[in-house]
Fold each of these.
Amino acid sequence: MSIYVIGHKIPDSDSVCSPIALAYLKSKLGEDTVAAVQGDLNPETAFILEKFGVAAPEVKTSFAGESVYLVDHSDLAQSPDDLGDAKVLGIVDHHKLGDVTTSEPLECWIRPVGCTGTIVKEMFDASGVEVPKDIAGLLLCAILSDTVIFKSPTCTPADKKAVEALAAIAGVDDVVALGVEMFNVKSAVAGTPIRDLVKRDYKDFNMGGKKVGVGQLEVVDLAIFDDIKADLLKDINELKAEGDRHSVLLLLTDIMKEGSELLIASDDTAIIEKAFNGQSADCKMWLDGVLSRKKQVVPNLEKVFA
């Protein structure tokens, strides 16, 4: 029986590319592993897989009775709903340690770096396994995506070192140009249903016993949202009501201006304002310099909800 390597719900590029790479590595080390995803690919990830000629993993949401490696997450809210009936063999992640627990010892690679792809590259190095060209391309793109082409405060020297090595293997001469190409794909919103945009890169969190959803859309120009911002705000209010959530927040991130406009749907807007020491107007708030949900948004919210 195969062991599944899975990223979080509503997969982004890191949670697809890193499981593919880790499944390859584990297979080379003698484990029968296969990558899977918990949902459909977003446009950026589909672009990356096509660019490097890699097939999309199987979409699978139930893992009862299976053995799994968790990648790019360790929170139950982002794991399969039946994870309690599966055996977790390991966690590879770059976020805070979540609430997944196990009954047996497990392999853990958790590092404060900008991308899980950086950790997977370190695992290849530690195991003495060469990274093939296509896998190198996937890991390279995952790091460029998660670090916002090195602009995110989560980016570390380890991420830049990994990019340099992976680019050489993948035959990519200009990593910044590749990153911009990826973000141009990510910026394409025309014709996409509003709910698909809201949940393109979305995660639910348990904060002080309250369910809080945080989504993020990263683009090269916030003007892209001018005609649909009201619709996005309406939809996050609907999503909040549907899931019995205390709050749903949507970050509209401008990677060129290096900041985010926060759209707010909340039972208590004041607590959101307190988290960011700011004032909202019409359920919107500009967060200067905020690019990272993981480092600049979720920790602030957890402090005020604690």
Amino acid sequence: MDLTEVTKRSKDIRELYHALEEKYHGSHWTTEEDALAFLTDAALVGRLVMDKEGRWPKTSDDKLALKIGESVWWLAILADETGLSLDECVSLFLKEKEAQLRK
């Protein structure tokens, strides 16, 4: 799956969540709240990796793949909400790191 498709599908799912937020809370989350939700999921990725490597108490479910996917989903949403392209963000990062490390 390419990043353009990731972004489109992510936005579609986010709109469904916005509808639930409106229904239950009268408003949808702000970009700042989305960023905090991403940080929570990113922290869970860290814990689940430690679990997988035997460095954290074992959980009952292996949700590492799901949480990594959710973190990418949040990044697609945050890029879109801030007027950026996920594809361009990733491309820029890779280009800069490759140039930096190949000096």
Amino acid sequence: MTASAPITLARPDPADLLAWYDRHARRLPWRVPPDERAVGVVPDPYRVWLSEIMLQQTTVAAVKGYFEAFLARWPRLEDLAAAPRDDVMAAWAGLGYYSRARNLKACAEMVAERHGGRFPDDEAALRALPGIGAYTAAAIAAIAFDRPAVVVDGNVERIVTRLHAVETPLPEAKPEIRRLTEALAPPTRPGDFAQAMMDLGATICTPKRPACGLCPWQGSCAARAAGTQESYPRKTAKPERPVRRGTAYVAIRSDGAVLLRRRPDKGLLGGMAEVPGTEWAATAPPADPPLPADWRRAGTVEHTFTHFHLILTVETASVDAPAPAGAWWAPADGLADEALPSLMRKTVAAALSDRGPAPGPDAAPRRGRGRPRKS
């Protein structure tokens, strides 16, 4: 039997990708499209930076509304720098990864104070700003300033590992992927090339069922030639997420106000508002209600973080008492303006939807739930 001749693949040409991008670039509220960029329209670094921070660990679909709301409220960097931090945190609520919001505010202040309101245009200076790491610095340098920076995100990793059939699993493959991306990047139009790679990964070279027949590099892709494109990038198996448990206490005043407190700045959900509760641990910690009351169970709420899955038991009670130190009563009609992360909004919603009649005077006391409120 005669062995079949090996398949010869063409080298991926950046010009083919840029030509595809010129025709098919997504219209995004933070982007200067290639036709406008070709006639001299310059991207606004503030919009590029804001979008890149929001897009970290978040989808384009989820970001669009937040981006437009931020711009409507704080149209210039100086406006954001001067805004109260609580307002910024409240506007960010629901986007997740809340350290980004704290760093966003700190970065705006630093650029306003130390750089005259103008972002620096090189990667090293950008990386010195709060919340800007290697990827974000490269993206801002390339997209906002057309600097020759190599931008490698999840889309780029997927494209490059398929083009070259990179067998090394992620995250170990990251240095190899960077070298291959550097070799692929053209000397001109670095900003458009970076965005073209993002668009190719988001619309054509997708994680599942990639539309290889529409790809400008279909004749250069080793994985497509072998019919194994969906198996890249290779990934090291992740350990199963551990489960943590805790109790959240939703105290509701007779006028509908809800008791809230502020989480510490450092740590998970840092600086955000929350209802009082226990620590989160592998074994449910002992009860620790914030005020003496007739606490009753209102169900459970589950939420998955990057490194663990959380199961919260929700306890609720009707309470008319001064707020403990460090806490405050948030009016019912003002909850939407509080910096409540999605987990806490789900927790409050569970309590509000399950408000039954308070236990009668003959109800048996419940152990570990605090002392009954005196009349």
Amino acid sequence: MSRPRVLLATCAAMPDSDKDDVGVLPALAEVGVDAAFAPWDDPSADFAGADLVVLRATWDYTLRRKEFLAWCDAVPRLANRADLVRWNTDKSYLADLASDGLAVVPTELVPPGAVPDWPDVDVVVKPAVGAGSHGARRFAPDQREEAASHLADLHTDGGVALVQPYQPAVDAEGETALVYLGGVYSHSFHKGPMLGNRVDPSGLFLAERLGPTTPTAEQRVLAEDTLDAVCARFGMRRNELVYARVDVLRGADGRQLLLELELTEPSLGFRQTGPEAPARFASAVRSALAAR
């Protein structure tokens, strides 16, 4: 039997993904999968002929989302699914998850021309389509003019922007990212505060301060509830998610809140855990191959 061929989609600025994915290719080879990295817009890459295409570091999609989504729709075998990608690459999905009853960081969606209901606390203003905290800025209550100016800048391309009350616990505690592979919990890592960090040399995201961590029971429940809500919304099983990353933080009232759900191209924190995590990723890919 011939070995399945998998392409791991990246971008031109990072054709071989980032250092976090260094163990993925050997892990896939160990379970009989031939895999290679390829930028999603590389015309020489045979994405249509691959047994599976897995989105990994397609981080320039924020600048070319319409083109990127058209490409996703055209890939016959894509993980995660193209309809999930379309939904998840616009942070308006947070409103959907809040409507599903999940504890989400309070989020106001602000279309061009609208005036937000500014809360009387520090706020974060960021684009609905963005990655790695690029374009996200924090403003104090006495900086409403600066916040409104940044909001107007974000509206210049006609897109929706988000206004969220800043969650002060992140200054001391950061965020916790919970990683699921094949719908099953794999590992977690800690993310230090992002706002104010330097831009990565690629220019696509802000540099992160990461480290391993163990999630609390409350964080695990929130992450599990989030994946269950997504699967119910899209009529799918958990094991159809080759990967998912759920970012949570402690809110002002002490509860754990969902900050981001990453189903499209997240760093999965493989460098923050042992070699068993890339092996679990490889098994999730094998499972996806068997289901097609």
